[in-house]
């Protein structure tokens, strides 16, 4: 006797827990969307790190993928930030294939959790706090415009008594250094146009991660050409009202906690009195 095919079960609906308000389901959905967005952002960061580690290991994607026992196409997806749905085991395997180790942690999140850009905000705050001693007036997230394109300066500092202005850009993760350089130049030029006759200079404040330090070491000649300013003189200008702002742009480091600023030490130069970077 033929049996009647069983109908597939209807998809489960998101139900409101008993005793809760109708808005609970909406909040749950919003939390899911935020979680997925965070997963995508983490996948992009992991992909950048994976690519950097593979290049440092002098391996092609095909070689690394073969070592991790995945396809080259899948490896390419991971490097391009498309690995939000990849199991943790896969990320651990591809990391091991290029000689690095997957590390992860959970940030504590509550109803009053930290902003997503907290690391960036901490470094902005560190710059503003340091510049207060030198008599600078800070303007975080300062909008500028040049050629009809809107841009924002992370920390814009002015010292009217000396007719000085500083464009400070804070970087946690550099994904496109060329684009970052061009954006920096545009902001400097916009400020010079706005404040004729003033000394206008700029600095990058770079988070002192292993990746960022390795990138600066590898591209030291390029970095030195783009940042000819003396970092120690820059810090002195932030600290002391009578110290002039150096005209050349400088590169500064922050530690992991964003509690301290230190100058970048150029290759071949001896800075005996400067903190090691």
User: Unreliable segments (pLDDT under 50, ≥5 consecutive)?
Assistant: 1-17, 270-277
Number of domains: 2
What about the largest sheet? 6 strands, mixed
Judged by helices, strands and strand pairing, the structural class is alpha/beta
| Mean pLDDT across all amino acids | 82
Percentage beta strand: 15-25%
Rg (CA only)? 24 Å
Helix and strand element order: HHHHHEEEHEHHHEE
Fraction of residues in H or I helices: 40-55%
Which shape, going by the Cα principal axes? elongated
CATH class of the largest domain: Alpha Beta
User: Termini, distance in Å?
Assistant: 81 Å
The strand line-up of the biggest sheet is 1-2-3-4-5-6
Give an overview of the whole structure.
By secondary structure, the chain is an alpha/beta fold. The chain has 9 helices and 6 strands, in the order αααααβββαβαααββ. The chain has helices spanning 23-56, 61-68, 72-79, 88-97, 118-132, 177-194, 210-218, 220-226, 231-239, and strands spanning 137-146, 149-159, 164-171, 199-207, 250-254, 261-263. The radius of gyration is 24 Å and the shape is elongated.
